Amino acid sequence: MIKSLARGVLIMHDVIILGAGVIGAFIARELARYQLDVIVIDKENDVGNFTSMANSALIHSGYDPEPGSLKAKLNVRGNAMFDQVCQELDVIFRRIGSLTVTTNPDEINVLQELQERGRQNGVETRILNQREVHEIEPALADDVVYALFAPTAGIIDPFELVVHLMENAIDHGVKLFLNETITGISPIDGGYRVMTNGAKHAGKIIINATGVNADLISEMVAPNDFVIKPRKGSYFVFDHFNDYFLKHIIFPVPDKRGKGIVVTSSYSYNYLVGPNSNFIDERDDLGTDRDTLEYIKGQAVKLVPQLPFDKVIRTFSGLRATPNTGDFIIGPIANHPNFINVAGIESPGLASSPAIAEYVINEFISKRITLVNKESFNPRIRPLYRFNRMSEQEINRLIKLKPEFGHLVCRCEMVSEGHILDSLSRSCPPHSIKGVKKRTRAGFGRCQGGFCQPLVVALLAKQYRISENDVLYDSLETSILKEETKGGSHHE
């Protein structure tokens, strides 16, 4: 573990980023372009392990936010940046477009209002009539009468995005501290001291990107003028059943609670349905319940009646960091110009994330510290071995060169031992079964790890030279094995 405290002397870093979700990771990657000493601190055992992990994985087009808001400005700019970002970082991203649909003829007025918002925000949209919408999306309910089509909307792999952002940042000198819960922040000469349960750090500039806890972290420095209220949403995940069942992201007409129950293909051609939107008090409540899931199902089939709910393989929930301001909160605390909040980043936060990083650096960091380009910076990571973009001949050559790619670990998702070993060899490697799952999809399929999990445990134990009993499922204290029950190895 890298130490910020050397021989009792607190090292003053240029920038400390609190939070290793998609916002913190994007900011870290952008700062890695410059000759700076940057560290990232997160309480989880992996990057992108909370809100950035459990969401709709959508890159919104930007027609919905209030014109003139930060959400509108950064959503539209961020959407336009994703093609280059994902090409550089080898992240799956597909612009499949979205349809906001209605079964009520009177709601064409709402679609026209959204279209006008889009026009003001600079977003291309088109209203489709009943015939037009069913021509491009035949799985929709027969009584869908209008749709607002936004062609620039897309779907992304949010796990890969955060991991590859952080990998690129670490490759260029950013240091990552995991499993460190922030316990206090205090001003010191030239910056701030950040205390965690494991260490002390000091930085000239602090970036608070801690999601649902951002108001609590900000309160450690000065009284807040904002409050974050967690909003929970649950989802269904479907097994692979028809890659082209739906061709677009399907939204209902939005209401005051949000964008409504979404039905969409995912980056991996699974289908995703959800979320609902309920304010909760607990900031770590990720449970699901039957009533909520039944509600989501009922809303979804109104728009896509043939959804095969017998193909559901998993349900999950995620939290959104909803601020009381109605907009993103990006800027310094009063009287603390070097403590910069990046808070209240709810939807369209994922779509806005590259633009948020750009905005934070251009508007705040560049005005507080000298930015000198790093000539050695390479915006690309080492490409992944993706069988689905390789010919049979290329796969055979790879297996001949690296036989581990011929050893299948996850049959559901066609993940080889080679893919897992490759993830373990990178600068932002997994430290848990869930970390392997997020990077390689081993365990994401129909059996949910029933076949591959013991093999993943063995690979992690070998990589880190630990007992299989010490391999973690996710966070610290989540080992899934207790003791040997018989001699020998079940891998023999």
Describe the structure in your own words.
Helices cover 28% and strands 23% of the residues. The protein contains 12 helices and 24 strands. The strands form 6 sheets. Strands 3, 4, 11, 12, 13, 14, 21 and 22 form an 8-stranded mixed β-sheet that branches. Strands 15, 17, 18, 19 and 20 form a 5-stranded antiparallel β-sheet that branches. Helix 1 packs parallel to helix 8 (349-363).
Please tag this protein with its features:
single chain, 492 residues, alpha+beta, FAD/NAD(P)-binding domain, D-Amino Acid Oxidase, Chain A, domain 2, Arc Repressor Mutant, subunit A, 3 domains, eight-stranded mixed β-sheet, five-stranded antiparallel β-sheet, 28% helix, globular
Short recap of the structure:
The protein has 492 residues and is an alpha+beta fold. It has helices at residues 22-31, 70-89, 108-121, 130-136, 158-171, 214-219, 290-303, 349-363, 392-401, 417-424, 433-440, 453-464, and strands at residues 5-6, 9-10, 12-18, 38-41, 58-59, 93-94, 98-102, 126-128, 146-150, 154-156, 175-177, 182-188, 191-196, 200-208, 228-238, 249-252, 262-265, 271-274, 278-279, 312-323, 329-333, 336-343, 408-410, 415-416. Strand 23 (408-410) and strand 24 (415-416) form a beta hairpin.
